[in-house]
Amino acid sequence: MIDIRGLAWRVIRPIDPALLAIIAGILGFAYIVMMSASPDRMSSHLTNIIVSLLVMWLVATQEPQKLQNIAVPLYVVGFLLLVAVALFGDVSKGARRWLNIGVARIQPSELMKIAMPLMLAWYFQKREGVLKVRDFFVAIFILMLPVALIAKQPDLGTAILVLGAGFFVIFFAGLSWWLIVPAGVLGAVAVAGVIMYQSQICAPEVQWPGLHDYQKHRVCTLLDPSSDPRGKGFHTIQSTIAVGSGGMIGKGWRNGTQTHLDFLPERHTDFVLAVVSEEFGLAGVLLLLVLYCLLIGRGLLIANSAPTLFARLLGGSITMIFFTYVFVNMGMVSGILPVVGVPLPMVSYGGTALLTLCFGVGILMSIKHQRRRVPR
Amino acid sequence: MDLKAPEQELSRFRARVAVAGAFVLICFGLIVARFVYLQVIRYDYYSTRAEENRISLLPIVPNRGLIMDRNGLVLARNYSAYTLEITPSKVRNLEDTIDDLSELIDIQPKDRKRFKKLLEESKNFESLPIRTRLSDAEVARFIAQRYRFPGVDIKARLFRQYPFGEFASHALGYIGRINQAEMAKIEDDDDLAANYRGTEHIGKIGLEQSYEKELHGVTGFEQVEVDASGRAVRSLARTPPVPGNNLQLTIDADLQRIAEEAFGNRRGSLVAIEPGTGGVLALVSTPRFDPNLFVDGITPDNWDVLNNSLDKPMVNRALNGAYPPGSTFKPFMALAALETGKRAATTVIADPGYFVFGNNTFRDDKAGGHGMVDMVKSIVVSCDTYYYSLANDMGIDLIANFMGKLGLGSRTGIDIEGESVGVLPSPAWKKKRFKKPEQQKWYAGETISIGIGQGYNAYTPIQLAHATATLAAGGVMFKPHIVKYVIDAQSGAKRMIEPTPIANLGFKPEHLDVIRKAMVGVTTGGTGARAFAGAKYEVAGKTGTAQVFSLKGSKYHEGAVNERMRDHALFIAYAPADKPKIALVVLVENGGFGAATAAPIARQVLDYYLLGIKPKGAVEDDSGAEGDTGD
Fold first, then answer.
1. Which of A92, B10, B359, B594 is 20 to 30 A from B470, alpha carbon to alpha carbon?
2. Number of Cβ pairs closer than 8 Å across A and B?
3. Domain for residue A4, yes or no?
4. Are B615 and B512 contacting, i.e. CB atoms less than 8 angstroms apart?
5. A57 and A145 within one domain
6. Across the interface, which of B6, B20, B28 has its CB nearest the CB of A316?
7. Is residue A56 situated within a structural domain?
8. Active site residue B235
9. What is the ipTM of this complex?
């Protein structure tokens, strides 16, 4: 009897009930939405959820020290795979993102979403106490190398997520405001400039340095969706209509006309929020936002009281990955950010993203668990 | 190394976490603001946009009304068939698409040519037929491969069909695809534009054009929910269309057919009218054309054949051919003389075979003349000299005034559009017609040849038939019309087109008797006697021969003149003479003597209409010219 109890305790103990409750709320709501958006995919969606939750539990049972040990190899392997993709990758829909390793096709950029914060957190842990300004430049180099490779594939969405994950490690490690503020101002000026001189820079003959034609197109379409209502602007226009026509409480579950008459593109993946908005209205969007706020708040709290620098940085940045996902996706669906292919975390259909995110939640739980075990 | 460094680091981390938390809240606040803007402030706008996306108003084109002859024989009908249609704006490469399609479906070069022509005339977003009347096998083959051809679709459509081909083509007219000029006209009128949404065809000429409003019907609408690809998912509401009204004509199909066949290969026209109603019994113009060729856009080859033919089959000679009436003018001249009191029926003149006016000599056809001639004889033998002197006595103003009242030189108002005016010669007309002052003056000598239906005289067959019918009806004019009933296709309720009396010219019965007697004389003992030998009814008729080409004094020899320079043959008649049931005019272009070519056609038509006798094969009688006097 005691043995069984002890075993149960060991199984349950690593799991943070608060985090579990929050993601159960998100996944549950997502499940209902998916039954409307894509009823054919329910069984595989359920499989994805179960597998991902198992992985979460598995990661939660591990000690953060183990993660610290695999940080460097994971990063190196991820980086090499990215180089391999650039050299031998399969092209699909105009982008070279996949690597065929015989048994399966893998997308190494996904790995980087976890490997990057691990690697940077490991680096700053190593430099703990002897941190110099120079170290930040090293960190930025470690960050930018894979980001550049991913952006080059091109996969702007993943590049932004990896960049966000890495940036928040460096930010939490204490990157000087003297660097952040000017960079922020520069970015804001650039965005304002693009908006103000839209007609000139969006002229077809103008080439944007360092960006692909389709990326330029996405930004330009965002600025003026009506310029291409049947082509690239279709996503943004139809998604905005779906959102706006949902109103305060929505048209009701499975009653979304934009959703069910195929006006909404990618309704089960990147644009699933438009389904939520159309069928559950502002109320549904706010419910999701509250759940995400709770998730992020809980994550930051766990990071805040983590015992080691590595755990703090890792916990903080992984939490902020959720924020990046949510912000970019919601901005994209509501038409204030370009369409960059970032799913809504734990709601959009897709096994890989869900697995990565649950892996992240598992890390948060592992950190929480460690705090209780390791006395300071 | 500072031992406090880890503590410092920890507090800095916590500050950064607070900053990050605040950043998250600000960004989420932005998102919330955006969603509130879209979902609350602009809700009405986006809600409308979503409804517009979802709901589409599809027009339901009404069935076009049928056209039937007076006995109910259907002359224009609709049938359903499949067409293969391409929407050019949805197709990337039109040529390649058509090439690929031709592997599945038989597409001839003429189909391509027609498609190209339609493309030039159409707007880009319309779907245009590349092939019509697909077989079931072709439909099945295309449907299996449909996914390969975005922008190409099969549609079930109603087609107009004229089951008897060329039969009565000038009266029926045809429908064709709406062209840009017609579309612009339709779009000027909002009601019309709404009613023609979805309609692809419109009446172009003939009754199809003039009764377009009746035949078209009222377009219905279906409110449907559509998906993003425009496919209808379900119907929300439906307003059924009201089919177009059917037309029942005054034309008798058998009579029309006998008349058309009587012309053989000759060019010409026949118009038969019911005196006392104005109902048109037959309206013939030869050569004819096949209106079926026009329904889906005529191929350039077919059009070239019709348009470039010397015989001009597309001209409706009955309404648009203007011909000098020749001697058929004489009965009207004689009536004018009686009514104006310019010459009594009993007045006898001596005909030496010519009439001298100033320095000019006007010849009679018969050398040596007809001797002593009174009014009846002048018509029976068709004496020119009598009418030279009569015209001179009356003067041009009196003649023009009388003929104008009979409707000559003005549109009859028949229910087909585009009727020609013809020429009623008068000093006023001449002044308008010519520019130079010396040409504008009317010379008294010009009046002389007017008297025998030559000179500037030019009237359409419908005008001559109309005048003959007026004569037959004792001076009461009825507006000619081809449609007898407009029939509601759903209820079957008939609305009669009432005979419309235009005027009662008030001719004195004793005057009409003189003319009738003379015209009966024509068919019993005069120029038309041969054609009407043995007729079991009394016919009042008059032959006529109209000069096409001025011979400048030399004698006319039929064989020596180019076929197209030969005289036109005419014949007017009404019968039975005492109680007329039919009045008609026959015109045979370059037919030579009216007695020889035109009168026999009239005989066949009258035989059928009055006695029900159908001709035995086509009757050709070219030898009868010798025996006729005069004309």
1. B594
2. 136
3. no
4. no
5. no
6. B20
7. yes
8. no
9. 0.93
